[in-house]
Amino acid sequence: MTAAMYCGRGMLRTVVLERGLSGGELLNTEVIEDYPGFEHILGWELAQKFESHAKKFGAEFLQETVTCVRKLDDGSFEADTESGTVYRAPTVILTAGGTPIKLGIPGELKYAGKGVSYCAVCDGAFFKGDTIAVVGGGDAAVEEADFLTRYAERVYLIHRRDELRASKILQKRLFENPKITMIWDTVVEEIEGDAQGLVTNLKVRDVKTQEARDIAATGIFVFIGFRPNTGIVEGHVDHDEMGYMLTDFSMETSVKGLFAAGDVRAQLTRQVTTAAGDGTTAAIAAEKYLKALKDKVGVPMIVRTGGYAV
Ligand SMILES: Cc1cc2nc3c(=O)[nH]c(=O)nc-3n(C[C@H](O)[C@H](O)[C@H](O)COP(=O)(O)OP(=O)(O)OC[C@H]3O[C@@H](n4cnc5c(N)ncnc54)[C@H](O)[C@@H]3O)c2cc1C
Fold it and tell me: Which residue's CA is minimally distant from atom 31 of ligand 1?
């Protein structure tokens, strides 16, 4: 939406193809307290502000699920959609984000946002003085478990094996933290809650002894990986070992004219601020790309009407 706002300000005919409601992960976030200028704003409220801002500058929003993005021989791009409409443009900005990998157990969807979370930075403050659980064994799980002790009284780190994958330094910090209890060789099999719809209990099983037991907890943070939504791009695009798209400083990927911004891109951290920043850069870079195209060979824009950035 930031990219769309800047493309609109660049007088580019801009269409945003979004499979759901505008807002992405903002819609999965109860409250945002770390976006500059908004000390406390509901996720959906901030999303609406982003959307109306982009629309103000002429960006068009279409509810479409993109199934494939491909580069054509003439250098332009095509985006196929589930509706069957094909969108063509000389440049594409991919901002499809990523998807936290879920546990896929009973209660996970039911209590999403009501004790089940995939982001400690965002939701940790809601568990002041509570007993909560973190699931996972990599850097994210260990780092976030440590982070969450600034709020929670007790944090169980539940890991399905007897060894963590996280870096040694993170493990050292974790084991020195008196508020954290390691639960090894254990998986969470069900999340239970109370009449108010809040998490109260976890059903777990030791994968070695098969012993099943209950753990009383008001929150469960799942960090078992993140999958960037890059699968829709046809052909090879350079990416890192986790699948995140690699870009240069202008957010251009290894495919000329294809830009990537936000959570879909390889970078240090993933926040609304960084996504908005990426969107700004990608839009301005796309505008320069289009101008260079035009200047170089005066390529007629392959559009229905006027210049398009999809
Ligand atoms: C639970 C949670 C809470 C968070 N809370 C905070 C917070 O408090 N503060 C903060 O700064 N950051 C927070 N973050 C991180 C922040 O939300 C993300 O960094 C930011 O939303 C990334 O923006 P994005 O546009 O790159 O991706 P997203 O927000 O993921 O948006 C991607 C959009 O692409 C759409 N899409 C994907 N594939 C397709 C397709 N094939 N066709 C059409 N549309 C498609 C999706 O529907 C989605 O709307 C949180 C993240 C999570 C998971």
Answer: 24
Task: Give the pLDDT of residue 306.
Answer: 45
124 in contact with ligand 1, CB cutoff 6 A = no
Report the alpha-carbon distance of residue 22 to residue 62 in Å, rounded: 10
Residue 151 has pLDDT above 90, yes or no: yes
* Dist. CA 98 → ligand 1 center (Å): 7
State which ligand 1 atom lies nearest to the alpha carbon of 64.
Answer: 43
- Closest ligand 1 atom, residue 99 Cα: 30
Give the percent of the chain with pLDDT over 90: 83
- What tens digit of pLDDT does each residue of 93-117 get? 999 999 999 999 999 999 988 999 9
For 43-72, the pLDDT digits (tens) are 999 999 999 999 999 999 999 999 999 999
Domains, the chain: 2-97+228-305 (3.50.50.60), 102-222 (3.50.50.60)
Cβ(113) to ligand 1 under 6 A? no
pLDDT value at 232 more than 80? yes
Residue 273 near residue 263 (C-beta atoms within 8 A): no
pTM (two decimals):
0.86
**Residues identified as active-site:** 119, 122-123
76, 80, 81, 85: CA torsion to nearest 10: 80
Per-residue model confidence (pLDDT) at position 303: 47
What's the burial of 192, exposed, middle or buried (CB within 10 Å: 0-12/13-18/19+)?
Answer: middle
Residue 156, phi then psi, degrees to nearest 5: -90, 125
DSSP symbol at 31: E
Return the exposure string of 137-170: e unless at least 16 CB atoms fall within 10 Å of the residue's CB, then b. Answer: bbebbbbbbbebbebbebbbbbbbeeebebeeeb
Nearest to 159 by CA among 186, 131, 141: 186
